[in-house]
TrEMBL record:
SMART domains: Aamy. One of its GO terms (biological process) is carbohydrate metabolic process. Residues 622-765 are annotated as: Disordered. It comes from Sharpea azabuensis. This is Amylosucrase. It holds the Pfam family Alpha-amylase. CDD domains: AmyAc_Amylosucrase (cd11324).
Amino acid sequence: MINENWESEFKTRLLEHYDEMKWLYTELYNDPHAFDYFCEMLHQYYAERSDLLKEWDEARIAVPNWYQGNEMLGMLMYVKQFAGNLKGVKEHLDYIQECGVNYLHLMPLLESPAGRSDGGYAVSNFRKVQPELGTMEDLSDLATECHKKGMSVCLDFVMNHTSEDHEWAKRARAGEKEYQDRYFFFDNWNIPNEFEKTVPQVFPTTAPGNFSWCEEAHKVVMTTFYPYQWDLNYNNPTVFNDMTANMLNLCNHGVDIVRLDAVPYIWKKLGTPCRNLPEVHTLVRLMRMAAEVVCPGTLLLGEVVMEPSKVVPYFGSVEKPECHMLYNVTTMASTWHTVATRDVRLLKHQLGTVFALPKQYTFLNYLRCHDDIGWGLDYDFLGQFGTNEVQHKKFLNDYFTGKLWESNGRGELYNDDPTLGDARLCGTTASLCGIEAAVYEKNDWKLNMSLELDEMLHAFLFTQSGIPVLYSGDEIGQLNDYSYHDDPLKWDDSRYLHRGDLNWDHVAMRNDMNTRQGRLFHALRKLEKIRAAHPVFESDADAWVVETYNDHVLGIGRYYDNEKLIALFNFSEDEQVAWINEDEDYIDLMTGLQRDAKGVNLAGHSFAWLLHSYREKEYNTEAPTPIEKKTKSVDKSSTKAMPEEKKTEVKAEAKPAEKKAEVKAETKPAEKKAEVKAETKPAEKKTEVKAEAKPVEKKTEVKAEAKPAEKMAEVKAETKPVEKKAAVKPAAKKAQPAKKTTRKPAAKKTRKTTKKATTKKATTK
């Protein structure tokens, strides 16, 4: 139904999608009345959307790929752990901007019951912020300030389930059939037992089964994750309509990116695994169109933590897109596998699969997040090297929990299942890299080695196509927080190990290069600025795996806009040689000096960004000003050197993001649209730009900043680590014989690792 009295802009957008929406909706529900209500609901939220946000939408419509640039950098944080509440985050936006961040992901902050919140993923009210964190008005105010600074705001939308304390659940417990129909209630265990035959368990040790007994209703209810999280029944159109309304309400409070939590689980059907069913894609497509009608500046980020063959379909197709972005969890897990084994063959295989995907597929890349690390690696590929899955998972967990003599990692296990030989891993990036062990042991040599590993891993993160995301605290090398062991509401969930409060005393040390905080902070800022300065880091770049003929050294090639990058990463603590033979002249972006790309020597845990330009001789390692970004030459078509006389003819019109009145992800929607310029990139402080202005700065000068022994006493460990025996400097390892790896089918991805706490599930039958 289309009302002729609706605004022309809304009707135009609705008509663009109306036929497809009606067809898909009818296919699922065959309920014309529910569909008419759905359209009315979309108009309601369009009408309620502020003029400020509508201007923001218009500017992003002009530049639809605003989120795919090489200047994008995300940061993931818990509001309480970062600054106490939403107002505190707002007060610290200058620091976030100083970090180079323009994509702020706030972890779940809607109302959830204490002790049964699952870190905020058991939502009891989708229209209310957790009181100690603030109000919905505080969320709107924070989003407005972020927009003024060119930052986008991401928030989780928990769509698979509600808390058992949600109003719908309360009324269902009281016996109201209308609300029981919003969940999966059964009079006895017959049908649930049939489901259990085909539905995998998410937490077989801490929350076995997929159903729980509800004593108040005297019925069985589906609870895929935890007993206090009741699965929503999306077979009911009322559930879909109301949950879409909840999502649009968050968008109208300034949320720019909606993270769809546990999206593969939302459709349930007897006789199936209740994962990745076709109806899930129909629902996501409908939500994508709903957002494009009401708030077209909004992006959908899908949380699909599975193997690539099941992840990629959530992008949809070019003609019928679903999610704008997805997590690159397979690369994350493969990266830590490579840290432990020093063997890059699996990572090469996995990256080859990712690089072969269409360039419009945007991944969020990360080293660590709020969740655990699952070891769902491609064991079919690893099997050709004699790797046994159960034994290898044990090796990885032993390595990163510091049980092996050659390991400096300090982490803890999550959901350990000795029967299956399966467990997942928790820990901050710094602690897993060995920084915690080095600080605890006051070992300068080990500290320097661990910092180099941390820096190299971030360089690898920034080399991948897509949006790199930092976990709050990683920019200063924050360590594990063992205090959760003393909190009865947390001690059963080891993921709180890496969810500690940000140490603002350590943040204050970020400009002291004699501290590990200062060294790491400025190393990452330099990487971020170099990445933003060179179009070869754009997501549209061609990317490929470079054969280094050394199983310790990963090679990545990139080409875009007449720039070619050869990136090399040494995962061994010993010096290695990348046996490459590139003919062009290269500059080392970290030093500004010329460097041959032939038989490249790499110190332990070091990396090299080697750049060749086909059109210019000057290399800039600083992020350009907005004017420079608008006027620099762009030529996507040529892979050859550009003749000198042709350079002046190149116009800066190759990138659509630099067209249309130079509108680029507007910073201040309140201003006139004609004045909305390329503000997606966060403004960098002038003092920082000056500090990085010397392109000839040598990497050896950065490494010389390792903390001297006399400074060690000033650097306090943020942790109460369990006493471990002093690590012995590992013996030098022999380089493995160079060999080429035969390409195999797409790598399998890590299994779903969902963010849940650890309450036992009732299994009374």
